[in-house]
């Protein structure tokens, strides 16, 4: 399955081949449109001149990295604070997974353990971790036993709740409609 979260072929191609880009896109996915968030890793890689590596991002001068994200068009509405979060995520991956994000899920015994690992990531609360777990299971075939249960409602088959369910423009529209309805119901 092809990742289509950015809805831009070159950005989606990077997300499909780079677990770090996918984790960074998910981290950026707050207070901005999903497509903008998941295009962020591609924008950063273009500005660096190559694919992202956790080691490089973690060791990048914080002010220079913030400036890189703030360059027009900005990677996020809050480029300085998100630059710090991206660097924290990269540093955590370097410290705990040798800079290789795929190690997060490669040997997870079950969905519960994988959820715990995702929740330990800087910038990942329970909801973001469950959504990312559902994304791994539904689109990347990372399916340790109990992954759907650990992902909660986001793991449900046939749902249209989150980025985990976006595979094309039509599914994106369904997810947006679901979120709008949920906001209306909450009021």
UniProtKB/TrEMBL annotation:
Gene Ontology molecular function, alphabetical: catalytic activity
Positions of transmembrane segments: none
Protein's organism: Nonomuraea jabiensis
Protein name, as recorded: Putative HhH-GPD family protein
InterPro entries per UniProt: DNA_glycosylase (IPR011257), HhH-GPD_base_excis (IPR017658)
GO biological process: DNA repair
